[in-house]
Write a structure and sequence with these properties.
The protein is α+β, with helices and mostly antiparallel strands. The protein contains 3 helices and 7 strands; from the N terminus they run αβββββββαα.
């Protein structure tokens, strides 16, 4: 019998698997990593040595009972600064021990840019002051157009 996990159980399950050294596949939600990762894309996450983390890596952490995968902008002695590629602002600093894992590959993506974003992550991280607002604006525009067209052609 298949049991559907609620959000909290899912977070615990993913965290437990990664902490045991397992590689997990996680479905992306949201648009914070637009245009490189889109909702329903699937990424492979693996636990990594925190000392090996570097600018450009996409890491998984839990904040406010949500799994978040964002790109590292800066690595400090005990914390890191991350940002979603399509977000306007960087995230609050995250203690390194709060990092659950690193995106090591893209399993399923709707864009050819996904794999390239892992390969050229350090360049993307450097460019985020410009690209973050740009990607945010493009993503918001696409969302508004899609919503408008959906409402326009919705049958009653």
């Amino acid at each position: 019998m298949k049991k559907n996990l609620n959000k909290k159980e899912y977070l615990l399950w993913v965290n437990e698997l990664i902490s045991k050294g397992k590689t997990v596949q996680v479905k992306v939600e949201g648009m914070s990593m637009f245009p490189f990762l889109l909702g329903k894309d699937v990424v492979k996450i693996k636990q990594v040595n925190k000392k090996s983390l570097k600018r450009g890596d996409v890491v998984l952490f839990i904040r406010d009972e949500q799994l978040i995968a964002h790109r590292i902008l800066k690595v400090n002695k005990s914390s890191i600064i991350t940002r979603g590629d399509g977000n306007l602002k960087q995230d609050y600093p995250i203690e390194k021990d709060k990092i659950k894992g690193k995106v090591i590959s893209i399993i399923k993506s709707r864009t050819f840019l996904a794999e390239q974003s892992l390969k050229y992550g350090s360049i993307i991280a450097i460019a985020t002051p410009v690209t973050g607002p740009l990607f945010y604006g493009i993503g918001l525009g696409i969302y508004k157009i899609k919503t408008h067209l959906t409402n326009l052609f919705r049958t009653k």
